[in-house]
């Protein structure tokens, strides 16, 4: 009942990382990896566009983890693994194209860039957001409004607007990026004003 | 603090792409993917 053990394990990623680093038990690493294996597989599929190579990559990435996790300081296992998986696939594709393989420039200082992703807090700052939405290009504005205000999924938005789903998605992604920039600017202005008062 | 994100798995990704997922579920997954590029890339991959 190995799967039950996984489900019942209350250990956080960080605890398992610590446990693995100190004891070197590959089963511990396996438990940790299992949490993300389906994501890793999906990422590999995205790169290779076919299942066999992606499956191999999932195994190879685990093997790569065994020594690397011992060696590197990892504060956020999930984002570190994500980078490792992407690099693994990229290297593989490069070597396949028989391009000169890049020297293994320490590709591992790639932790922590997902604070960029996390605009959730920003999304709470609804003040100013509407103003920023108004400033978006029309198609981004429409997609953003349908997604965030009407809570429509991409497919529904695509049907409503007669756009392709991929278009919808890119309008939402770009709209988010622009919103973030606009709101940061606004926050900057507010801070300046506060500073002036002091 | 936000509640811990639902853990999505291969079945969810397959359902998403096959169009058998409910719109509100799709919406939730899309929102999660916008916050998590690991999840977003994985979801993209399951189209193959």
Based on secondary structure, the structural category of chain B is mainly alpha
Instruction: Write down the overall geometry of chain B.
Output: globular
CATH class of the largest domain in chain A: Mainly Alpha
Average of pLDDT of chain A: 85
Which sequence of SSEs, written as H and E, runs from N to C of chain A?
A: HHHHHHHHHHH
CATH homologous superfamily of the largest domain in chain A - what is it?
Answer: RNA polymerase sigma factor, region 2, helix turn helix motif
Compact overview of the structure:
The complex is a heterodimer of chains A (198) and B (48). With 198 residues, chain A is mainly α.
Descriptive account of the structure:
The complex is a heterodimer of chains A (198) and B (48). By secondary structure, chain A is an all-alpha fold. Chain A is 73% helix and 0% strand. The longest helix of chain A is centred in the last third of the chain and has 33 residues. Chain B has one domain. Chain B contains three helices and no strands. In chain B, helix 2 crosses helix 3. The relative contact order of chain B is 0.20. Chains A and B meet through helix 4, helix 6, helix 10 and helix 11 of A and helix 2 and helix 3 of B.
């Amino acid at each position: 009942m190995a799967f039950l053990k996984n489900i019942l394990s209350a250990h956080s990623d960080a605890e398992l990382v610590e446990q693995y680093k100190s004891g070197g038990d590959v089963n511990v690493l396996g438990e940790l990896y299992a949490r993300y294996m389906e994501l890793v597989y999906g990422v590999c599929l995205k790169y290779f566009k076919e299942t066999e190579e992606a499956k191999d990559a999932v195994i190879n990435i685990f093997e790569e983890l065994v020594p690397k996790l011992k060696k590197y300081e990892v504060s956020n296992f999930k984002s570190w693994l994500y980078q490792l998986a992407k690099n693994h696939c990229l290297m593989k594709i490069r070597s396949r194209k028989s391009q000169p393989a890049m020297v293994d420039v320490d590709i591992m200082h790639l932790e922590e860039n997902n604070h960029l992703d996390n605009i959730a807090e920003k999304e709470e700052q609804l003040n100013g957001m509407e103003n920023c939405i108004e400033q978006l290009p029309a198609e981004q504005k429409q997609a953003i409004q349908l997604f965030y205000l009407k809570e429509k999924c991409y497919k529904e938005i695509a049907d409503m607007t007669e756009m392709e789903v991929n278009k919808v998605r890119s309008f939402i992604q770009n709209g988010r990026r622009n919103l973030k920039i606009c709101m940061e600017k606004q926050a900057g202005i507010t801070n300046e004003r506060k500073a002036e008062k002091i | 603090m936000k509640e811990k994100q639902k853990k999505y798995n291969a079945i969810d990704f397959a359902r998403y792409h096959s169009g058998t997922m409910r719109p509100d579920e799709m919406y939730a997954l899309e929102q999660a993917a916008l916050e998590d590029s690991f999840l977003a890339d994985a979801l993209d991959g399951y189209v193959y």
